[in-house]
Design a protein that fits this description.
CATH class of the domain at 39-107 in chain A: Mainly Beta
Strand order of the largest sheet of chain A: 3-10-8-5
CATH topology of the domain at 39-107 in chain A: OB fold (Dihydrolipoamide Acetyltransferase, E2P)
Strand content of chain A: 35-45%
CATH architecture of the largest domain in chain B: Alpha-Beta Complex
Helix content of chain A: under 10%
CATH topology of the largest domain in chain B: 2-enoyl-CoA Hydratase, Chain A, domain 1
Number of strands of chain B: 17
Oligomer: heterodimer
Distance between the termini of chain A: 76 Å
Largest sheet of chain A: 4 strands, antiparallel
CATH architecture of the domain at 39-107 in chain A: Beta Barrel
Number of helices of chain B: 21
CATH class of the largest domain in chain B: Alpha Beta
Radius of gyration of chain B: 26 Å
Radius of gyration of chain A: 22 Å
Number of strands of chain A: 10
Number of domains of chain B: 3
Order of helices and strands of chain A: EEHEEEEEEEE
């Protein structure tokens, strides 16, 4: 039986270059993304039921931002940032995918005191 | 009624029950490219060996108009028979009867044959083709699943348990196969998942086909839930029969031995393995050059192909092989390959099958995804499985044996019985390039020509440490051997290990890094 010639790749480990092939799963692996606290993404796919803020609003840590209905549950999404809403990507009744960006924040400098 | 009349009445009753869901349902089954449950059993077992039990079992569900439904055999066929003359227990869910759904009586038929297989110490083969729980029977059907899972666990490591997925197997149903030793799937026919595409769509809004979510290829290649992948049901049955020739009937026995055969000549070990440790080759060719008739039966071929596991025979007796595969990802250990090897080692140990380890690996796969997936915990499975195993354990180091991988791949330190090394073996903390860069960093940095110095130092390190003789001088390797003598040495090592007696401290059970 004539076999297909494997597509060799270079694979470096401890400074040694190995000639080898990749497995299908290795090819499909997803790269790591460093979490950015200033970008709020949806952790689940769902629907936005309510938005409490608008662009330019000041938010504190714990400020209610929106209600995301996902897994048959209404989840109140709260801010983890102290700053302002820079951009809002969703509105009432938007359906969002997993990892879809909901909004971006402009944080205040570290030393700024928190608002009450 | 005369005896003859009564017998005729029996035959009539049997014919009705054996017809399953009837001709129309059978045609539907055929249209999907599937055999019926009865055809499957007959195709798998020796001709005329099948004896069915509980053909006349009926459910006694009363809700949702179930009382008016007569379900042939309650949707499952159970019995005993032989494969190559050896007795086995078998059940096959009948999709033509109420979608093969699992009710209480259905489950009780299965648990009855499971109890029988454990008591009689013979293998159990389960053919799964079912829409899932019979919802009309409510919690009784969940109870049925639970009783099956409990028995799967009870029988684990005592008798071989084989699951064949020949249709849907969804929700809780998937946990019976997951608890068994070997799972067989067939292209376009097998479907396994916890929650199906419909649920995923309504709850998560993500669209995926059944095949992409839990088809045969997915489980054989990506999830690792299936160990054997076939293009057709008949090919699948041949795989099952072949597997059964390699394994013992229970944990108190050894696998049957066959007349010894020499490997076929076209495999020449010396020509397969390049002496440069950076060059790839297919380690399965090395195994084929070592085993009787060059017949290597690979397990989980598509999943984590950077490690190769499977059965072969040496001098007629079954041996389990665990081999790094330089052809894929340079043969590194990672989460999946550790999981694959660890489980197989435990299988061999439970069923008295000697383990031969062929080592040629540069270390563990670096990566954020690997670390975050818990490569520490998964990698530990290999250490645990080898350390725990008391069957004869033989290692042959072909080329690279670097770092943690050297320890993990059945080293002397984990109580290997024999560790052999080819003259091409390099037993070291890491590859020469990396080691030289660390040890001689200052010399390299301060040299007039750092690149020249680096090359010089790598060469120096290679000459001094990239060989089997340092480890041999400490007794970590028992013998450095000529590659062409590998088979005869393995033969010898297995022969002298026949009466191996080794124990571990008494305990209820260990806590492996699951």
């Amino acid at each position: 039986m004539e076999q297909e010639k494997p597509k060799y790749k270079t694979f470096i480990l401890d400074d040694v270059k190995y000639k080898t092939t990749h497995s299908a799963k290795f090819e499909k692996r997803v790269g790591y993304e460093r979490p950015n606290p200033n970008i709020l993404k949806s952790v689940l796919p769902g629907k936005i039921l309510k938005v409490f803020i608008k662009e330019g609003d000041e938010v504190n840590r714990g400020t209610r931002l929106c209600v995301l209905e996902a897994m048959k549950t209404e989840n109140i999404i709260k801010s983890t940032v102290y700053g302002t809403v820079k951009k809002l990507y969703v509105s009432k009744n938007s359906t969002v995918k997993k990892r879809e960006i909901l909004m971006e924040f402009e944080p205040y400098p570290e030393e700024a005191g928190e608002i009450e | 009624m005369s005896l003859k009349q009564k017998t005729n009445d029996l035959l009539k009753r049997k014919a009705i029950a054996e017809a399953g869901g009837g001709q129309e349902a059978n045609l539907k089954q055929q249209a999907k490219g599937k055999l019926t449950a009865r055809e499957r059993i007959l195709a798998l077992l020796d001709d005329g060996s099948f004896q069915e039990y509980d053909l006349f079992v009926q459910h006694d569900a009363r809700d949702f108009n179930m009382e008016s439904k007569v379900l042939a055999g309650d949707g499952v066929i159970t019995g005993t028979g032989t494969i190559y003359g050896q007795p086995i227990c078998i059940y096959a869910q009948d999709f033509t009867v109420e979608g093969g759904s699992l009710g209480f009586a259905h489950a009780r038929k299965i648990t009855k044959i499971m109890d029988h297989s454990l008591k009689m110490r013979m293998p159990l083969i389960g053919i799964n083709d079912s829409g899932g729980a019979r919802i009309q029977e409510g919690v009784n059907s969940l109870a049925g699943y639970g009783e099956i899972f409990f028995r799967n666990t009870l029988s684990s490591g005592v008798i071989p348990q084989i699951s064949v997925i020949l249709g849907p197997c969804a929700g809780g149903a998937v946990y019976s196969p997951a608890l068994t030793d070997f799972v067989f799937v067939v292209e376009n026919i097998s479907k396994m998942f916890i929650t199906g595409p419909e649920v995923i769509k309504t709850v998560l809004g993500e669209e995926i086909s059944m095949e992409e979510l839990g088809g045969a290829k997915v489980h054989a290649e990506i999830s690792g839930n299936a160990h054997f992948y076939a293009k057709s049901e008949l090919e699948c049955f041949e795989q099952i029969k072949k597997l059964l020739t390699f394994i013992p009937w229970n944990n108190g026995q050894k696998a049957r031995s066959f007349p010894p055969k020499e490997p076929r000549l076209e495999f020449k070990i010396e020509d397969i393995v390049p002496s440069d440790p950076r060059q790839p080759y297919d380690v399965r060719d090395v195994i084929r050059a070592l085993v009787d008739d060059s017949d290597f039966f690979e397990v989980a071929e598509l999943f984590a192909p950077n490690i190769v596991i499977g059965f072969g025979r040496i001098n007629g007796g079954t041996v389990g092989f665990v081999a790094n595969q330089p052809l894929v990802l340079a043969g590194v250990l990672d989460c999946d390959s550790s999981d694959k090897a660890g489980r197989f080692i435990r299988y061999c140990d439970a069923f008295n099958i000697p383990i031969v380890t062929l080592e040629d690996m540069p270390g563990y796969l670096p990566g954020i995804d690997q670390e975050h997936m818990g490569v520490i915990r998964h990698g530990a499975k290999v250490l645990y499985a080898y350390s725990e195993a008391t069957v004869p354990k033989i290692t042959v180091i072909l080329r690279k044996a670097y770092g943690g991988g050297y320890i993990a791949m059945n080293s002397r330190h984990l109580r290997a019985d024999f560790v052999f090394a080819w003259p091409t073996a390099e037993i070291a903390v890491m590859g020469p390039e990396g080691a030289a860069n660390i040890i001689f960093r200052k010399e390299i940095q301060s040299a007039e020509n750092p690149e020249e110095m680096r090359k010089l130092k790598i060469k120096e390190y290679k000459e001094k440490f990239a060989n089997p003789y340092v480890a041999a001088s400490k007794g970590y390797i028992d013998a450095v051997i000529e590659p062409e003598r590998t088979r005869s040495i393995l033969l010898h090592a297995i022969e002298v290990s026949t009466n191996k007696t080794d124990g571990r401290p008494r305990k209820k059970h260990g806590i492996p890094p699951f």
